[in-house]
Amino acid sequence: MGASADRFEAPANLYSRCRLSNFPVVSISEEQIRDALKSVKYPGFTRDIVSFGLVKSIKIDNGEVKVQVAIATNDPNVPATIKNDAEKILRSLAGVQSAKVLIDIHAPPAGTGAGVVAAGIPGVKHIIAVASGKGGVGKSTVAANLAVALEQIGARVGLCDCDIYGPSISLMFGTRERPMATDENKIVPIEQYGLRLMSMGFLLDDMSPAILRGPMVTRYTQQFLRQVDWGELDYLVLDLPPGTGDIQLTIVQTVALSGAIIVTTPQEVALIDARKAATMFEKVNVPVLGLVENMSYFISPSDNKRYDIFGSGGGEREAKRLRVPLLGQVPIDIATRESGDRGMPIAAEDRKSLVAAEFVKIAQRVREALA
Ligand SMILES: Nc1ncnc2c1ncn2[C@@H]1O[C@H](COP(=O)(O)OP(=O)(O)OP(=O)(O)O)[C@@H](O)[C@H]1O
Ligand SMILES: [Mg+2]
C-alpha cells in the first residue's frame, strides 16, 4: 500500500462508493477471514473458535461475508457472544461490507463441551479435577492431600498428575519409579501411601515437554488419560495444570468429570482467575463442587496468633458469588511445604496436624457432594 493509504483509512461504507465509481476494491480472502476469527475466543476459554473446529464454512460474495459456526451448548449466552464478537471483528476488516455469522446450536451430551463426547473410565466411580486459573496457588498440594484424606476416610483413590509442563506429584510422593505396562499396552499406576499414582512426569523423563506443542500435547494427554489401568476406584483426582487453555479443555473433553474443585488464595488476583476456571467448567457442564481457599492464614508458631497474610474473606465471598460451597480453608504452614518437598503429603505424614484435619473435612464434603 502507498503512503496515502497509511494516513487514510476508509470506513467500510466508502468501499461501496468506491466500487460504484470504479475505484479499485479491496478484496478479502477466506484465509484472512479465518485468521480474523482466530481472535474470537470460545466464552470462558482461552481457546478460539477456529482452533476449536467450530467454523464450518466461510462464504464471500463481493465483500459480503457469511460464516457458519456449529456449537453444542445449552447456554444461550454462548452462541450470542460468539455471534457478536465474530461479527464485530469481521465488520472492522477492510474489504468487508457486511458480515453475518450464522450459528447452528446442538444440545451437548451431559458432561461434555463443544460437542466432543467425553467418556468415563471403566472401574472408576468419580473423576474429580482440581484446578485453578492462577498458577502456584497450591493445586498440587491440595490434590495430593485431598487424595490422601479421601483414602483415610475409607475410599479407593487414584491421583493423576496432568501437568505435562511442570509435573509435581512424583516429587510430592517421593517416587521416581517407572510404571510398568500390561500385555494390552496399558500403563499400571504406582502404589504409594495406599494410593494409585500416575504422572505424565513418570513417562516423560528424557523427552523435553518444551518440544511437545499444540496437537501433540492434545494427543499425548488423551492417550495418557485413556491408557492407564486404574482398576477399581471410588475417586480419581486429577491435578490440572494452571489456566483455562488447551490442555484443560482437552482433559475435560476426554474424560467425563463428576466435578471440579477450584483452588484459590484469598487475593483478588487469584480470585479473578478462579472465577475464569469456574466459568470454564460451567460452560462444559461440569459441576463445580466447591472452592478450597489455600494459604488462607498463618498461625505464628511463636505466639499462636493468626495473621491473614493475603487478606481475609476472599474465598468465602467468591464461593457465595459462584453459588458453590467453600470446602475448606488451608493455612500457610511451614510443615505442609516441607512435607511436600520431602515426598510425603502432610495429611499422610502428620495426621494430627491442623492441615491434615482440614483435608479430612474437605474430603468428607467432597464425598457428600458426590453421594
Ligand atoms: N498451605 C500451604 N502452606 C505452605 N506452603 C504451601 C501451601 N500450599 C502450597 N504450598 C507450597 O507452595 C508451592 C506451590 O504449591 P503447588 O505446587 O501445590 O501449587 P500449584 O498451584 O500446583 O502450582 P502450579 O500452578 O505450578 O501447578 C509449593 O512449594 C508448595 O509446597
Ligand atoms: Mg501443580
Task: Describe the fold and architecture.
With 371 residues, this protein is an alpha/beta fold. 37% of the residues lie in helices and 23% in strands. The longest helix is centred in the last third of the chain and has 17 residues, at 354-370. The N and C termini lie far apart (66 Å). The model is unreliable at 1-24 and 109-116 (pLDDT under 50). The chain binds adenosine-5'-triphosphate and magnesium ion. Magnesium ion (MG) is lined by residues 139-140, 163, 168, 239.
What characteristics describe this protein?
371 residues; alpha/beta; binds magnesium ion
Overall 3D form: globular
The small-molecule ligands in this entry are: adenosine-5'-triphosphate, magnesium ion
Distance between the termini: 66 Å
Structural class: alpha/beta
Round the Cα radius of gyration to an integer and report it: 24 Å
DSSP helical segment count: 14
On the 0 to 100 scale, the average pLDDT is 84
Task: Give the arrangement of secondary structure elements.
Layout lengths: L2 H5 L4 H9 L9 H8 L17 E7 L2 E9 L4 H15 L6 E9 L17 E8 L7 H14 L4 E5 L7 H4 L7 E2 L5 E2 L1 E3 L2 E5 H4 L10 H14 L5 E7 L6 H9 L4 E6 L3 H16 L4 E12 L6 E2 L6 H9 L3 E7 L1 H9 L3 H4 L4 H17 L1
Parallel strand pairs: 2-3, 4-10, 4-11, 5-9, 5-10, 11-12, 12-14
Antiparallel strand pairs: 1-2, 6-7, 8-9, 12-13
Bound molecules: adenosine-5'-triphosphate (ATP) and magnesium ion (MG).
